[in-house]
Structure formats: C-alpha cells, structure tokens
TrEMBL record:
Residues 189-319 form the Nudix hydrolase domain. The gene is NUDT13. It comes from Myripristis murdjan (pinecone soldierfish). It catalyses: NADPH + H2O = reduced beta-nicotinamide D-ribonucleotide + adenosine 2',5'-bisphosphate + 2 H(+); NAD(+) + H2O = beta-nicotinamide D-ribonucleotide + AMP + 2 H(+); NADH + H2O = reduced beta-nicotinamide D-ribonucleotide + AMP + 2 H(+). Pfam families: NUDIX, NUDIX-like, Zn_ribbon_NUD. Its EC number is 3.6.1.22. The lineage of its organism: Eukaryota, Metazoa, Chordata, Craniata, Vertebrata. This is NAD(+) diphosphatase. SUPFAM superfamilies: Nudix.
Length: 338
C-alpha cells in the first residue's frame, strides 16, 4: 500500500504530489518546495522546530545521561519566549530553513542575538555555547545540522548589501537566497572548496600542524582551492607548497562541510609519494611542522579517547572524530593493518 504522507502546514496538506515517494525523497522534495514557495514556508514555520542561536552560538541542553543536544523548540514555544522577554513577535520571521526531520517537520534556525543571553538561557533551560566547543559536545548526527545552521545565519548576517550596487538585499522566506532590491542580482550562500589529503609513502603517513592547533595535534594537509583549479590540481599544488613533495595515485574518500573559521567544503582524498621521493621540505610560513608518522604511532593516537590534559599532550594527538581528517587517518591505518 502506498504510504500516505500528510504534512499539515497551517491547514494545508502537502500530500497529493508526495504520496508515491519514499520518506527520503518526499523530505527532499518538501525542503525544495519550501525554498521556492514563500507562503508555504511561512506556514511551515508556524508548525516547525527551531534551533536557537545567540550571536552565532548554538543553544545546547544537557540531557539526563550527561550528554548534550541542541535545544529544538517548537515554533509556538519560541513565540512564547519572545513574548515573555518583550521581543517583537516578528523576529520569528528571521528564521532560516535548514531542513526537514524524519517526521516531516520543517526545521529552522534563528539568531536571537538582540535579546539578553542569560534571560533566554534561563527561559529555555539551556546554554549558548561557542560553536567550536559545541561541535565536539554533540553526537555525529546533530553536529552537521548545527554547523549548517550557523553557516547560514552567518551568511545572512554578512550579506545584507549587494556587492555590485551597495543597496540592501532582501531574503526570501526560507533564507535560501538574497536579492538586491535595486539590481535584482540574486545571491546564494557560499562555501570555499578546500582539499584535504592524507599522503602516504607506503609505510608512513604525512601529518602537519599549524601553530594555532592544540599542542601535540597533527592533521592531514589541507588548503583552499584556487579559482579554475581541479580538485587534483589543488591537491598536488598544496602538497608541493606545504611539504615539497610530488604526489600520485590520488583517490577520493569523502567530503564534509566545515564551519571553521567560515564555511569550507572539505574534499577528502588519499595520495601517495614514492618512498625514494619522500624527503620533506616544509614551508614553515604555512606549517609549524610536518612529519612522517608510522602505523604504530598513528594507531596509538587513534586509541586515545579523551582530549589530552593541558600541559601534558601525548606525542601525537589527532583531530576529533567529526573531522574528515580523522576519517582519512583511520582509513589509512585500517588499510595498513590489512
Ligand atoms: N575538517 C577537517 O578535518 C580539517 C579542516 N581544515 C580546514 O581547512 C581549511 C584550510 O586549511 P588551511 O591549511 O588553513 O588552508 P591553506 O593551506 O590554503 O592556508 C590558508 C591561507 O590560504 C589563503 N586563502 C586562499 N583562499 C582562501 C579562502 N577562500 N579563505 C581563506 N583563506 C584563503 C589565506 O592566505 P592569506 O591570508 O595570505 O590570503 C589563508 O591564510 C581551514 O579552514 C581549516 O579549518 C583543516 C584541517 C582539517
Ligand atoms: Mg594548509
């Protein structure tokens, strides 16, 4: 029997065109529909859930098992919070669409930076936590959604004016675009493509660190793609610039949206160098250090569970599990062990 999908949006039913679709397809279609149809999106906002931010810091709640989750409030709860704190109810309209839950409920985010932070925290029984910290307190499934929400809010906050005319830009209801009120130029949220690569010489892998990293932490080499470059060209250039090596046998592993310091689209790859050409020539203006690490050293670092205590870092500390760098390093170690 065909699954009856009924998404009630203030009395409107979006069932007919989506009835034959799988859950995933219908969710994607719904989000696309809400991006294009301002009236439908405004209606979905009335029944949607909202992730709150304060000056781009997400609101987290501690749950009984001691872990954290992003506070997701129903739209009517947010309206009640705004009313209680004496804020304009129209603030809700600044919400930006971020997706749709498996229960087909539209998901939004809203920055309430103009309200008193402590007052919102008290009413909502949560804490606004800097994204860098929040990102690592959350589980795998929630962290990317919070990162996406913050990236969209940041983009709106920094794209209020047209770069061609200097005139204000107006967002659509979902926040998927902004349009210049004078020229009609349409702006979409942007990300910078970044290549990240784990280089191996067959026995060892190459990791580098920037001076801004926590003590002892090394990661895969990364760099922004230049205009006009392919992924492979950017990868070869970055490894040549930073480590003085020429790589071959490039293979793609996976990608990730990375919110720090702004939105990057990380494209994760593996690559190889011939053992006889593995002599490093590190550009110290880009990297504080880069070294070859053995499987034994990497495996020991992968086994570490908690962040190292301050002042006593282990010899090698890897990026957290959420990071695509971690995935590349783990993949390499697993292949070596095989
Ligand atoms: N998720 C993960 O696992 C990891 C993510 N990363 C991320 O990868 C990104 C890139 O790594 P990084 O080694 O710093 O990059 P690069 O090696 O490209 O060095 C950064 C420099 O590139 C220049 N640059 C060129 N294009 C851009 C752009 N679009 N935005 C910002 N700077 C640009 C800037 O130089 P100038 O200031 O001189 O103009 C900047 O200082 C970082 O944002 C980092 O957070 C890194 C490692 C792991
Ligand atoms: Mg780099």
């Amino acid at each position: 029997m065909l699954k009856q999908l009924r998404i009630l949006v203030s009395g409107r039913t979006w069932s007919s065109s989506l009835r034959h679709c799988s859950g995933f397809v219908s969710r994607m279609r719904l989000v696309n529909q809400l991006k294009q149809d301002d009236a439908a999106c405004a209606a979905a906002l009335q029944t949607g859930s909202i992730f709150l931010f304060h000056r781009l810091n997400p609101l987290l709640q501690r749950i009984p098992n001691g872990t954290f989750r992003p506070a997701t409030l129903h739209s009517t709860e947010v309206q009640a919070v705004l009313q209680r704190l004496g804020a304009e109810g129209s603030l809700l309209q600044d919400s930006v669409l971020i997706g749709c839950s498996e229960q087909n409920q539209a998901q939004f985010c809203l920055d309430v930076g103009q309200l008193d932070q402590a007052a919102v925290e008290e009413v909502c029984d949560g804490k606004f936590i800097a994204l860098r910290k929040a990102f690592f307190l959350l589980t795998g499934a929630e962290a990317p959604l919070v990162a996406k929400a913050q990236a969209l809010l940041r983009w709106h906050q920094t794209n209020g004016f047209c770069s061609a005319t200097g005139q204000p830009t107006q967002r659509n209801q979902s926040g998927s675009q902004r349009v210049c009120s004078s020229s009609g130029i349409v702006y979409y949220p942007t990300m910078s493509p970044v290549v990240i690569v784990l280089v191996s010489d067959g026995k060892r892998c190459l990791l580098g660190r920037q001076s801004s990293f926590p003590k002892g932490m090394y990661s895969a080499l990364a760099g922004f793609c230049d205009m006009g470059e392919t992924l492979e060209e950017a990868l070869c250039r970055e490894v040549a610039e930073e480590a003085g090596l020429q790589v071959h046998s490039i293979s793609y592993s996976g990608s990730q949206h990375w919110p720090f310091p702004h939105s990057s689209f990380m494209l994760g790859c593996h690559a190889a160098v011939r053992p006889e050409h593995s002599q490093l020539s590190v550009d110290h203006s880009e990297l504080e250090d880069a070294r070859w690490f053995s499987l034994q050293e990497v495996s020991a670092a992968l086994r570490l569970q908690a962040p190292p205590p301050r002042g006593a870092p282990p010899p090698l500390w890897l990026p957290p599990k959420h990071a695509v760098a971690h995935r590349l390093i783990r993949e390499w170690a697993e292949r070596q062990s095989d």
